[in-house]
Fold:
Amino acid sequence: MRILLCGNGIVSEKYLDTYRMVRENVKGYVISDDIPLPQNSENVFHISDLCKVEFDELDIANSHFETVVQILEVGIKKEKIVLCYVGLVYEYLKQYGKLDVRVRVPAVLTSMMVESGMVYGNRIGSINNTELVINEDYCRRGTLQLLAREINERGIIGDVAELGVYRGDFSQYINEAFPDRNLYLFDTFEGFWKEQEMQNVSSGFSREIDIMNSDFSDTCVSTVMKKMIHPHRVIIRKGLFPETIPDEPIGFAFVSIDCDLYQPILDGLRYFFPRLSNRGYIMLHDYNNPKFSVGVKKALSDYEEEIGERVMYVPIPDESGSIVIMK
Structure:
């Protein structure tokens, strides 16, 4: 049995831990075309080259549905594909209407979502009479849509932004909700900055294992831009924030801050909150996420102490327990 594995994060780690026979038969790894091959790439393949590779099974063990689409587009037979994450199963059903590929989802990947007792905004579905938690984060997206309606109907002025973009999954919805506004995207597009990671750990804001399992380096600007519905409205600010702050004065009607770590969140509040329009909103992610909430809450309380006033916010029941800040 020759298995190729697509995925190198916590999803694939839990998958391989559960299915040891799969681990023993993994003969190569598959990455997106927009990620450079490593120097020793004998057993690493781009999706576009899969038709030239001999294999019996392709296990997709990540949370990025676009990889499933790309793999199908290059002509890989469906009988060779195995979906190894519950979110991929849900998206596949939504996109294609039937489940004509194999599914091998470890129970741990669904229980991880409920272990803290906070499965915010996720839908419950069933496949073959097995109940699954679907990680769609409907509540987060729905909250964005309602906030966008308020902003647009009330004529709140300002551009929109996201600090902490990763692969652009939430950015695309911001771009869709505000088609007539500039969307500023702030990110290293290379993952966490190591110094800030270590600061989070040494300060007790995050456990080292949570930081190690949160590798956001598998992205790049082109990956994000491919998802944008109105790409002409997107302004990329690549690099370490706040060094990437534009020189020109900008006001904002809506901002998403989703960078997990204490220091960039504090810097984000320092920059965006004074520039937020009256009746504008900031969605601050991970405020009630057990992995990062200590640092997120500390960043907000430190900012409140700096400005000498309390910030008004409302918690929402999305997957990571975000809050919505209103000015």
